[in-house]
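Per your request, structure below.
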């Protein structure tokens, strides 16, 4: 009989696509695939397709895999209950995903939100290896944060701690998707920087190639490309975004004293355009006690596999701590 390879199944559920893959203890991804989430259909439908596809893959592969567990990253995922509560972009309402998974598979399963999964992935496989205190910031359509203190993700009493995207950085500021005003993610996220560009163009006469682009076609990538060419509005938009991020991080440092803040996601790929003003404003605003102690770093997870690695790390973490294997 062939030796079996111990792996966990990592699943990352997004509003449009769901990624899944098998990952061993050393971050080797044996395969990963993406299927459409079909957010308007019930969660059972997604898992039925996912596990049918997994079975096909397991039969087709030459290796024999022993799946030790299933880790899931999902919007509004709750580590304590295994449920998700009214996730944005999914019409599932409040349901228990772990219970649904167990109608298909018998392996242990555990769930958290995508930013916490990314933090665990970073700690096990990425830039935070060896760290016990750091903050992972995911910059995409929103701003997610996974906060690790003393080697543990901070979940809070109800499983939802670490919502830095919704700390208020400007009273009565921009309307946020959560219904309140002035949240960090209304400024520091892909849509946030687009709104900043629109405001800068409305408030000034500065020449910019971005004036030719309709707002609904604007993206953080287009702003980045314009910044690379020296476009003044694009450069200023990154300055503003980095400044607001740096100021918010200075406050976070006072709470958690992390050794690093790791930026992950599309907007973080703008490199120095976002890192420089963020670092500068972090240092300008942080309590002297923490001056020059906090590193601001890019993620060490490869972009394509980060979501699956994070979800897998969640389960490996669980197995290492609870089962002792
Ligand atoms: Zn908000």
């Amino acid at each position: 009989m062939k030796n079996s390879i111990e792996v966990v199944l990592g699943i990352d559920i997004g509003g449009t696509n769901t990624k899944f893959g098998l990952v061993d203890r050393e971050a080797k991804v044996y395969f990963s695939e993406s299927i459409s989430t079909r957010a308007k259909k019930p969660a059972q439908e997604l898992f039925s397709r996912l596990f049918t596809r997994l079975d096909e893959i397991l039969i087709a592969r030459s290796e024999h895999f022993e799946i030790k567990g299933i880790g899931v990253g999902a919007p509004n995922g709750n580590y304590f209950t295994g449920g998700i509560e009214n996730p944005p972009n999914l019409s599932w309402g409040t349901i228990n995903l772990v219970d649904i998974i167990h109608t298909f598979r018998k392996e242990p399963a555990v769930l958290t939100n995508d930013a916490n999964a990314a933090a665990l992935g970073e700690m096990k496989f990425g830039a935070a290896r060896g760290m016990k205190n750091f903050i992972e910031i995911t910059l995409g359509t929103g701003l997610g944060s996974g906060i690790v203190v003393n080697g543990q993700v901070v979940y809070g009493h109800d499983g939802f701690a670490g919502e830095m995207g919704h700390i208020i950085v400007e009273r009565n500021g921009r309307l946020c998707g959560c219904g309140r005003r002035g949240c960090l993610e209304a400024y520091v996220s892909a849509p946030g920087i687009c709104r900043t560009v629109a405001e800068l163009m409305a408030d000034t006469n500065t020449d910019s190639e971005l004036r030719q682009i309709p707002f609904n076609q604007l993206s953080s990538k287009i702003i980045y490309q314009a910044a690379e060419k020296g476009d003044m509005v694009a450069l200023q938009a990154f300055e503003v975004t980095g400044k607001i991020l740096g100021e918010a991080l200075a406050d976070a440092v006072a709470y958690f004293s992390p050794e690093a803040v790791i930026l992950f996601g599309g907007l973080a790929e703008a490199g120095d355009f976002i890192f420089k003003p963020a670092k500068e404003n972090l240092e300008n605003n942080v309590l002297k006690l923490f001056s020059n102690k906090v590193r601001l770093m890019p993620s060490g997870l490869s972009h394509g596999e980060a979501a699956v690695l994070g979800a897998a790390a969640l389960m490996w973490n669980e197995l290492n701590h609870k089962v002792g294997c």
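Helices lie at 43-60, 97-102, 114-125, 190-203, 220-228, 232-256, 272-285, 306-323.

Regards,
D.
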